[in-house]
Amino acid sequence: IFITGGNQFFPISLETLRVGGSLDRTNIHTNGNIEVVEMRGMFDSVLMAGGPNTQYQFPSSANGFNNFATLPSVTVSGVGQGASSFVNSVIAARFLGDVRITLPDISNALPFGLAATRIDSVTTTFADGVEVLDPATTSMAWGDYQVRVGFVVPT
């Protein structure tokens, strides 16, 4: 799904993306913001605000991203029964606000996760507990699940 139009300063945005279940093998790209994102799970999918329409991989740079595009609120709440709910998926924008991820698959075999120039906060619920990250400047990795601040790949 590509939501395009407008220009760099007045791009077309999406107010709310609410998925009753999960995104599965879905690519969603907007030229502008996606104000609120809520879903139970995300599998083999890409969600990008202001990202290039040709980008389907986990970005390691801000090249091609709209300087003004944001994802202020993202929640992947979990599919239930202790099952992995965020698997081989990418959420990226120039700016990510408050992000909540439930049960990422940390042994996915491929790097996946969140990427932005700036991220306000990330709360990740793992099978063994909750990890809260205020990623002012540091990229982090838990197995294959990564949070890329400044689009920097964790070392």
List keywords for this structure.
single chain; 155 residues; mainly beta; 7-stranded mixed beta sheet; 6-stranded mixed beta sheet
Summarize the structure.
With 155 residues, this protein is mainly β. It is built from no helices and 16 strands.
Q: Are there runs of 5+ residues with pLDDT below 50, and where?
A: none
Q: Please bin the fraction of helical residues.
A: under 10%
- Give the topology string: H per helix, E per strand: EEEEEEEEEEEEEEEE
> What is the tally of beta strands?
16
The DSSP helix count reads 0
Q: Report strand %.
A: over 45%
Class by helix and strand content?
A: mainly beta
Overall body shape: globular
Architecture overview:
It contains no helices and 16 strands. It has strands at residues 2-3, 14-18, 22-24, 27-30, 34-39, 41-43, 46-49, 70-76, 86-87, 90-93, 95-102, 112-116, 118-126, 129-133, 140-142, 145-149. The strands form three sheets. A seven-stranded mixed sheet has the order 1-4-7-10-12-16-15, with no helix packed on it. The chain has a six-stranded mixed sheet with strand order 2-5-8-11-13-14, with no helix packed on it. A three-stranded parallel sheet has the order 3-6-9, with no helix packed on it. The chain is globular, with a radius of gyration of 14 Å.
